[in-house]
Design brief:
Radius of gyration: 23 Å
Number of helices: 14
Number of strands: 11
Strand content: 15-25%
Strand order of the largest sheet: 8-7-9-10-6-11
Structural class: alpha/beta
Order of helices and strands: HEHHEEHHHEEHEHEHHHEEHEHEH
Distance between the termini: 55 Å
Shape: globular
Helix content: 40-55%
């Protein structure tokens, strides 16, 4: 009698995995077997048991195959020096479950961007990895997505990496101070001191990546510049890595002004969340219109990050999704443009 595919998938089997002798078992299992428990939570029908340097996986054949692949990936990640946590397991399960994912978990989680002050900055999701790849492959890259997806942080890490590799001579970090027209006069201090609160998130990220004692020296030497967007007008930025943050708060005219500052040997990354526009009523967001304007222009790529790329508390993803659903219902609007494939090159729109 022939066994149907559905019957085969329900057949329980056992498979054993041998942990490499050079890898401490605790590095794979986690504190109090927390990693192992996370694997079982990702595949409720599978039992996972560790004894010595062997891990036994028991369950439906299809799930056992996926868990075996997951454990192989986690072993590779642990061997590369990345600490395994339940969160790493959840992200890896999501990658393996996504048929459209273009990268293996180990390729994403062991991809080093920058090592600084005893820590290594890496992408943590397939979307983030594709975003980093797009920055490498294009002169101008747009990172569009909700808070917590690492848009600005990863862009700044790539900027510091490029500076350390002497690919560029300076880093320019900028963002619009949209509230300045109303509130700036009420703040104490000089103009630079009044603007500083709007630039503080950029300084905070910078201090994570560069020795804090070196930051003032690099700024004083002009190697790193942190300035409001208005300071970009009339300049030509050569041999620079330029990051524009909070780009949803630029007007169409400001976006054009910024993009045309691009000089020879430079690279630009523009980040923003099109759902968080703080511009006065009636002002069109430059981030919302720029993709249609740059339709068909080569060497420009748009990467869309989604709630699945959020690397903050797990509730942040749920909150973002809940607000997206509420906006559709409250405003009586159709859902917005759907997130596109994250693979490098896949976000380049075709000519109509």
């Amino acid at each position: 009698m022939t066994t149907s595919p559905s019957t085969q998938s329900q057949t329980r089997i056992e498979h054993k995995i041998v942990v490499p002798a050079h890898l401490p078992t605790v590095a794979l299992l986690g504190s109090r077997d927390s990693v192992l428990r996370a694997v079982e939570e990702g595949f409720p029908g599978v039992d996972v048991h560790a004894r010595g340097n062997e891990i036994a996986v028991n369950g439906p054949a299809g799930d056992v195959a996926l868990v075996t692949q997951l454990l192989d990936e986690l072993i590779e990640v642990a061997e590369a020096g990345t600490q395994l946590t339940p969160e790493v397991v959840k992200r890896s399960v999501a990658m393996l479950s996504d048929a459209s994912a273009s990268s293996r978990p180990a390729e994403v989680l062991t991809f080093n961007i920058l090592s600084s002050r005893g820590r290594t900055i890496r992408p943590k999701t397939v979307g983030q990895k594709a975003y980093v790849d797009a920055i490498d492959s294009n002169t101008i890259t747009f990172g569009i997505g909700p808070a917590g997806t690492g848009k600005t942080y990863l862009a700044m890490a790539k900027a510091v990496q490029a500076l350390q590799a002497k690919q560029i001579n300076r880093i320019i970090l900028t963002r619009p101070a949209v509230e300045a027209g109303e509130r700036l006069g009420f703040l104490p201090g000089s103009l630079s001191e009044k603007i500083d609160p709007y630039l503080r998130p950029l300084y905070d990220a910078l201090h994570d990546m560069v020795d804090p004692e070196q930051v003032p020296k690099l700024i004083e030497a002009g190697t790193i510049e942190v300035a409001p967007l208005a300071y970009m007008r009339g300049r030509s930025l050569n041999d620079s890595f330029i990051v524009l943050d909070e780009a949803q708060n630029t007007s169409t005219e400001q976006m054009k002004m910024f993009l045309t500052r691009l000089g020879f040997g430079s690279k630009m990354v523009i980040t923003g969340d099109a759902t968080q526009v703080d511009l006065p009523g009636g002002t069109q967001s430059g981030l919302r219109s720029v993709e249609d304007i740059l339709l068909g222009v080569d060497d420009v790529e748009f990467c869309r990050l989604t709630s699945s790329d959020v690397v903050r508390h797990r509730l942040v993803s749920d909150i973002i999704d809940a607000y997206a659903r509420w906006d559709v219902v409250a405003n009586g609007q159709r859902p917005g443009r759907q997130p596109q494939d994250h693979r490098p090159g896949s976000n380049k729109r075709q000519r109509r």
